[in-house]
Amino acid sequence: MTPRDYPPPPSRYYDQVVETLPRLDGLTVAVTGSTSGTGEVYARTAGRLGARVIVLNRPSARADAATDRLRDGGVDVVPVACDLQSFESVRDAGEQVRAVAVGGLDVLCNNAGVMGLPDQATPDGCDVQMQTNHLSHFLLTSLVWPVLQRGAEARGRARVVSHSSGARRGPALKAEYLERRGGHLGGDGFPGFGKWRRYQQSKLANLLFSYALLERMPAEDQARGIQVLTAHPGPTNSGLQAKTGRAGGTRMLDRAILNRTLKVAHSVEDGALGIIRASFDPAAQTGEFYGPAGRGEPGPPVLMEPERDPASEKILWETSLATTGVTDFFGVRTGLT
User: Fold this and answer.
1) Membrane spanning segments where (predicted)?
2) For residue 307, what pLDDT band results from cuts at 50, 70 and 90?
3) Which is the catalytic residue, given 42, 199, 211, 290?
4) Catalytic site residue 174?
């Protein structure tokens, strides 16, 4: 079977979880990757709860159509062009978000991601999966930090939420995947495991980023109420698998990995509940990690045990600074290349 052969499963948990969440009137949230999948569900949910939603997507007809769907659903949506495969585009997007969120940003949800792509370099020279999934989100978070501070000062809390994956499990993080070595990391020959190792490293980076950010955040920003959380979706029929197939995921290994997920996957609405709860549940606390329990099993989002690795967190932080050119994550940003 191909990824397209699996029909979307029904939602089991979405409605009951969303019913427990408060109204979000007066809040501004930003989310990357809202043209489909968990990001679109997230944006729709935040909007229906009353938030203004900044959606950051690569310019395309799909992005325009997704924005129109949100508007048709009554969401106060602000589109911002952001191509996560270009640091220049991310810098422009950060400037736009700061201009739009003049009253402060309440949540930044680093959701967008790609999966199982060949060993390709972005125009910045980075691995396409690592730059899309982590490095550009690292840069974006630094760029919008001033409006997160403003949101926390105005309303007592602001959150940075990163979207990891069950694929995070595996070898410890290696600096080479974070460096400008795109197209030279290898592993695309038979059986083609390299693309999945690069994906694993990028989703591990999402989780480690949260812990590294929390560890290094200035005390005054913690006192302001800036919180850092992570979520994972569990096995989710989000459409990402079909995109992987269209991008060349045709090997036996690719089909086995995708089909194994889709056989047990829950709905995209249920898969979005981790980032929804991490973003909007008033009981959620900084440093927490939400997602379905177990290993590769669907279910409602629950509080996960911490998965700390200080050595990898240090590698993540220092290499991400060097690759993105950020010299002061929480303050003046110079030397961006």
Assistant:
1) none
2) very high
3) 199
4) no
